[in-house]
Specification:
- It comes from Palleronia sediminis.
- The chain is built from 14 helices and no strands.
- By secondary structure, it is mainly α.
- The chain has one domain.
- Helix 2 crosses helix 14, helix 7 packs across helix 11 and helix 13 runs antiparallel to helix 14.
- It is globular, with a radius of gyration of 21 Å.
Length: about 325
Amino acid sequence: MKVTTAIPRTTRNRDIALGALFALAIAAGLVMLARGTGWSEVVNQIARLGAVQIAVLLVLSLANYGCRALRWHVCVRRAGLDLPLSSSLRHFLGGFAMSVTPGRVGELVRLRWIGRETGAAMTRIAPLALLDRAADLGAMALILAVSLALAQAGIAGGMLAAGGALALAFIVTRPGLFAAAALGAYRATGRFARPLARLRSAAGLLGRFQAPRVAVPVLALGIVGWAAEGIGLWLLLGWFGAPVGFWAAIAIFTFATLAGGLTGAPGGLGGAEAAMVALLVASDVPLDAAIAATAVIRLTTLWFALAIGLVVFPVAERHATRCERDHALENR
């Protein structure tokens, strides 16, 4: 059995440094906006929060992570990988340590951990990453569409974004599309037969997740999880004395999160913050409250997830290394 190596420390340090630079850039942007409104107003808004209110926001974020981790476990088991829930939780949460890498590609470390612990081929594991992204897109698209329909005020291009995200989630989970693309690429080039064959094999596994008894709970868990964080924004604005309608707040949070993801920046940094501030101001939220709410909600969602990931990552790495070593000894 081939024994894979651990992710080089220099690579992890580079990814963390890159994420830190993006975070500093976003913090600088928020600081400049705060200076434009006056420091005291922004600080006074944040000072309104007590320990209980911060705890509520963190619990809502934990609800999101828990629902999505359970969704990950459902997909892992559906892929025929015999891993306990504890392993899925460890992999999913540990992957958050790499969420500030460009396009969040660092989160693919979850696949690597599964491979090292189970010895399964990557063609069997790789579809999980695509399914996870598609499930997020589908869930957020449905949340955005429903919240826009029920909100008193709309978001320009919101329904178009929801439709586009839902269509993309549907397209990228069609096994026939990937198989046809791989076959077409081989016929056109006559090359890359082995990797294209692996792509077709991996795509074939997507069919396992299209049955309603799998697709419905996968979507439902994502909807509950992401809606929880949207509720956090709604509560936060109320605490800041700048209430926005329940459905409008959820629509703003979801649209901003999708917008940030489209930028490809680590964790959606920059795009999500800019979209959220702009949408809040357009909803008659004072600029100081919009800046404060954006800063707090990002700290209690994205950066809270990163902190959890940094704690869990070394645990997941050690466990995967131990399992890999055991597999290697068994196959000698």
